[in-house]
Design goal:
By secondary structure, the protein is an alpha+beta fold. It has a single domain (63-278), classed as Jelly Rolls. The chain is 15% helix and 34% strand. The protein has helices at residues 3-7, 83-102, 117-121, 142-150, 155-158; strands spanning 10-18, 27-29, 44-53, 68-72, 106-115, 135-136, 161-171, 181-184, 194-200, 205-211, 219-221, 229-237, 249-251, 266-278. β9 and β10 (205-211) form a beta hairpin. 39% of the residues are buried.
Length: 279
Amino acid sequence: MSDDTVSSGLVRADLNYLKEVPAEKPAFYLRQSLPENPRRGPQLGPRTMLIQDGRPGRDTLSLDDQGVVLVDAPTAFEDFYDPDRVRDAYYPEIESLVMKETGAVRVIAFDHNLRSKDLVSEKRHDAQLPVLFAHNDYTEESGPQRVRDLVPDEANELLEKRFAVINVWRPTRARVEESPLAVLDASSMAPDDLVAMDLIYPDRMGEIQSLRFDPEHRWLYFPKMEASEVMLLKCFDSARDGRARFTAHSAFADPATTPDAPARESIEVRTLAFFDEAC
């Protein structure tokens, strides 16, 4: 990486894209042993991309245009290793934050993941590794299905109006120096860039999206995020009026990371945000 690249607020790094669109829908098996005849997973390969420092232009970003914003959101919560405490005390804080930042009339936090390669290697706290391929967490099918799964008695009524799935991503301990999160500016992505794949759990099946390569994709990240900051990512929006509906993202190996940098530790909380407006 050249000094010019550093000074211009860009890093050059590899991001894993789909190599090809498969004939059969790919599948990813999560938290379980593979079956006897597993379906083929997505065939991925690295593409070297420029990733822009999003901090200088953070005030110009919006969930409806780029699909991502950075928000100052200090928290007194510290018990990120205790899933019950996270649900009881941290979820309400995140629900209030998403409501404030989006204008939603109701928000339901329903799931979270703790990510750290150190915690994974130590087999602690049910942590998962950072995801090192470009993906989006929901699709046309799985977004509405989460509403049906989580609030079945209200789903028909809720789905008549606009709703969105908003992920809230925060460093939990030290500043992020290793495996930061890159986000694709949604305005640089075509609808058919995303390819559906099944996400197979031991007890249910979800559906996410992987990403085809396009050299016009514009990626951004927020270097050295602190625990007092959160990133909001719009992973689904039922509105079809031209605003961003999906936001691809991926962890990446930042070439500026030093060998002694602490492993990234982060939490992402998934929320359903409901709006008092038509789809």
